[in-house]
Amino acid sequence: MPKILSSSTISYENGVVTSRLYGAFNEKSAEDYSDRLFKLVIGLNQRPFSLLADISQVEGATPEAFDILKRIIKRLPDMGLIAKAYVYKGPVIRGIMFQRIPELKSMDYLFFTDIDEASSWLSREYERKLSLLSDS
Q1: Residue 78 and residue 51 in contact, taking contact as beta carbons nearer than 8 Å
Q2: So which domain of life are we looking at (predicted)?
């Protein structure tokens, strides 16, 4: 039986999609995560949402997995994403993300090392952006 190298959970509550990723991702595990994430987001029917991505337990990813992540990051804003926060443990994964996905530099998001801090900021940012949308 092959060893499972990675896993993820995805949930939705009060406008926040929370994803938690664990382990080392390859193309297949990243594609599985992408499929599940997009299935949930498509079910929101273009309603605005925020994303809290906890990558603090990610140990690594193949270049193909980063390519899939890049596609996810580029596609979500067109599907209703209005605020995003990443939670990470150390600078390595964050640094690799910036290297492999240069578009991150021009996107609206924040990185945090504390999930509670990230969640609080994301809730405030989500509400702020929702009110801006309703004003327009």
Answers
A1: no
A2: Bacteria
pLDDT tens per residue, range 92-113: 677 777 777 777 666 667 889 9
Q: Nearest to residue 28, comparing CAs of 73, 70, 62, 76? A: 62
Which are the contacts of 68, defined by CB distance < 8 A and separation ≥ 6?
Answer: 27, 30, 31, 33, 34
pTM of the model: 0.87
For the domain made up of 6-135, give the CATH fold.
Transcription Regulator spoIIAA (3.30.750)
Helix, strand, coil in percent for the chain, rounding step 5: 50, 30, 20
Phi, psi of 87 (to 5 degrees): -115, 125
Tell me the C-alpha to C-alpha distance, in Å, between residue 1 and each of 4, 6, 30, 62: 9, 15, 20, 21
